[in-house]
Amino acid sequence: MSEPIDHVAPFSVADLAELHVDSWTAPFWRATREERLVGCACGRCGTFRMPGPICPVCGSTDVIWRPLSGQGTVFSYTVVRHAVIPQVRGQLPYVIAVIDLAGAPGLRLIANLWNVAVDDLRIGMPVEVHWDHISTDVCIPRFVPLDPEE
Amino acid sequence: MTRSSSIVGVGATPYYQRGATVARTTMDLLIEAIRNAVDDAGLQLADIDGFALYSGGYDTALLAQTLGLRELRFSAAITGTGGGSAGAVGLAGMAVDSGAAEVVVTAIAVQQRRRMGAAFSPSGGSGPYAGTPTAESDFSVPSGLLSPGQSFAMLAQRHMHVYGTTREHFASVAITTRRHAQTRQSALMRDELTLESYLASRMIADPLCLYDFCLESEGAVAVVTTTDRRARELAHRPVRILASAHGGTGSWGKALTWMNMPADSFVTSGHQSLAQRLWRESGLSASDVDVALLYDHFTPMVLMQLEDYGFCGPGEGGPYMADGGGAIDGNGTPVNPHGGNLSEAYILGMTHVREAVEQLRGNAVNQVDGAEVALVTGGPAPLPSSNLLLGVER
Ligand SMILES: [Zn+2]
Questions:
Q1: Is B185 a member of any domain?
Q2: Would you say residue B42 lies in a domain?
Q3: What is the H or E stretch that residue B162 is in?
Q4: How close A76 comes to chain B (CA, Å)?
Q5: Which residues pair with B205 in a beta bridge?
Q6: Stretch 84-143 of chain A: residues touching chain B, C-beta under 8 Å
Q7: Which residue of chain B has the CA closest to A118?
Q8: pLDDT tens column, B130-171
Q9: In chain A, pLDDT over 90 holds for what percent of residues?
Q10: Which of B115, B256, B374, B387 has fewest C-beta within 10 Å?
Q11: Which residue intervals define the domain Thiolase C-terminal in the entry (chain B) (predicted)?
Q12: Residue B69 sits in a domain of what CATH number?
């Protein structure tokens, strides 16, 4: 087996977090700067989707950005132990997860899990958003385990 | 659609380790493979009148001029990467079936130059698939999701969670394939692989370790497709195109970078609808397949394709392979007797087409006795992916 690793490093590399927003994704990233997590939903039928020019269910281009609680559950994840580019070498290991967002059925976000031990990682674990201000313009949502006591 | 086309020629360069072809050009490798395929068919280069390609295609103008074509009648490519491999041969068949062209070449050349791992990286990557950063990649890259291996690791992790699939199941794919490669001269990796060495290898993107990844290799493979009628006059037993499909369900879409496909699709290879179309068109099913050439860029995707094509039930891919279902001397349909992308060489899926042709001609290195039907798949990937069902005249 590979060397046991208790805790994974938080992943935050500034030069990977340069954004290239378009008119459809800009509201998401504007909201993150204010530490608000929002989900793109169809203005006609309400279906959540990744931001983009048309609803895949009804074809409407109307969009409502729904405020989300910032909570969710881990749908799947990987512990990255190999640096595919030099920039991430100092960050290993890190966790990439697929997060099922509470209150936005069918919408999932790719995000890093912070503050978590490898042995505790599991699909279905409750998590909540944590704001990573990369720069004054860019804030990336990360997730941390949700303390069940709170 | 009535299929009336056959593969009549197959050719390749030798397979090389990453970096070993650096003094040559992609076009140089491509031409060597195409020339070998045309020679194998007993045709002339000038007979070629069409290209059905994938992975972005090549400079058709340069190809046509370099090869000395009399008249180019068809040129098209399925987009995507290895997902289009099997379907590009199907596309060649469609060009021939429709009468648009008569001798159509499908070919791929791979030179790694830089590490494939840099696939989606905006700043550090300049590999063959280096992605240009976009509004869409803003939802993956800032989390360090930079390579296909990391995406497939998350599909694998969920498959383990839902079905109880284990690392030993993944290992069985790598070990079975390696055992096949040991008798194949063209295979780059022929050392025995044990479960112990599998488990001791470097973890890359948990749960995927070194041996769950395909090789990084270089080389080119080409096949020639023509009409059944003309095929009967040529050198080899024709290998008929029975059916082919490319595409997939829209919701799979950008599956591997956005991961928003429906939960029941998440634990698949994205090939379910492609498989249904293939079986519907051919009137056959998995039980009719004598040898399966499944695109093996990552071991878990072999398990999921076995499930999607109906060689076993959903979630049963792991036990199927671990119980010897894919072994050449096993109790199921042999999988990748050439060693696949994992042990022979990774030439973006065309080695699988080559092996299918050799199996159906009856001259494969690890010949499956009496093989008459071969399934070939393109790599599970963002759309379009693809497949191909080949058979011999009965
Ligand atoms: Zn809608």
A1: no
A2: yes
A3: helix B148-163
A4: 6
A5: A80, B208
A6: 84-88, 91, 94, 96-98, 106-112, 123-124, 134, 140
A7: B206
A8: 567 789 999 999 999 988 999 999 999 999 999 999 999 999
A9: 83
A10: B115
A11: 265-378
A12: 3.40.47.10
